[in-house]
Design brief:
About 25% of the residues lie in helices and about 25% in strands. The chain has helices spanning about 20-30, 45-50, 55-65, 95-105, 120-125, 165-170, 175-180, 200-205, and strands at about 70-75, 80, 110-115, 135-145, 145-155, 185-195, 210-220, 225-235. A six-stranded antiparallel β-sheet has the order 3-4-5-8-7-6. β1 and β2 (about 80) form a beta hairpin.
């Protein structure tokens, strides 16, 4: 049996992110890749030497790993990878509405803001709104057992947002309010990118500023191909993932997704 790849001798320090967080990310990646086949992580002194950090930094990183349920600290023995880690991840099996229902049932919602406002330019363009036209804006935080997992930033055209209020959103998910008004979902356009957590989002998601986020943008249309909701979801990369189940008959269509590179060629130099 081939041995797992050996750990790298050190790591590049990233300005703006605490050392214990960087160490946490490296060790978490090595644990998930099965680097520590024996189950035992190196001693604190060895980690200090390898990464060139203090013992306090190492202990904070190990504490974060323990809080995430990846390792356990055994007094006098060291730190060990937990033996009860999930062996397999759940596979996607739900459609759009069922997936939305599952999210609503499994999470607790905190409504942060509901108001009519002029949306950002790109949101207004996606919803086919005129310049300066207002829409209903709903900002919500969803948590599981007190741990924030997703920040949802939704915009709905004003004609569809009359029943959208903070009180309503505490009882029903936004998709349920739209369905109750007779909206039937049709085409959905989705985009997945990555970003770093700026201070406000980091605070809401209980992350450090600069922590990696998954950014999930979804534009929902009705059966007449009219946009009815623009939704941006920010997910903590360490706590969440996005699953897709692509039918074989759609593998060669945009339903299977497409990677788009927003890189433009540099302008040609002008010669004197």
């Amino acid at each position: 049996m081939a041995r797992p790849p050996a750990p790298a001798p050190s790591f590049d320090r990233v300005p703006g992110t605490s050392l214990h967080r960087q160490l946490f990310v490296v060790l978490r990646d090595e644990i998930t890749r099965g680097v520590y086949a024996s189950g035992a992580l190196p001693k604190e002194a060895a980690l200090c030497e390898r990464f060139g950090v203090s013992r306090i930094t190492v202990r904070r990183a190990l504490s974060d790993l323990a809080a995430l349920g990846l390792v356990e600290r055994r007094h006098g023995l060291g730190t060990f990878v937990r033996t009860d880690l999930p062996k397999a991840r759940a596979q996607p099996s739900l459609g759009l509405v069922d997936g939305l229902r599952k999210t609503a049932l499994e999470t607790d919602v905190e409504v942060l803001e509901v108001a009519q406002a002029v949306p950002p330019h790109e949101v207004a363009a996606a919803l086919h709104l005129d310049a300066g036209e207002k829409a209903v804006h709903a900002l919500r935080l969803r948590s599981i057992d007190g741990t924030p997992v997703m920040l949802t930033d939704a915009w709905v055209p004003a004609r569809l947002g009359k029943r959208v209020s903070a009180a309503a959103l505490r009882k029903q998910a936004l998709y349920e309010i739209l369905l109750a008004q007779g909206v039937k979902f049709g085409r959905v356009v989705q985009e997945i990118t990555a970003e770093v957590a700026e201070p406000a989002r980091a605070r809401l998601l209980n992350l450090e500023t600069g922590a990696p986020l998954l950014k999930f943008v979804r534009l929902l249309h009705d059966l007449d191909a009219q946009p009815v909701q623009h939704l941006t979801v920010s997910l903590a990369a360490e706590r969440s993932r996005i699953l897709m189940d692509i039918p074989g008959e759609t593998i060669n269509t945009l339903s299977a997704g497409q990677v788009v590179h927003d890189v433009h060629p540099a302008p040609a130099r002008r010669h004197p």
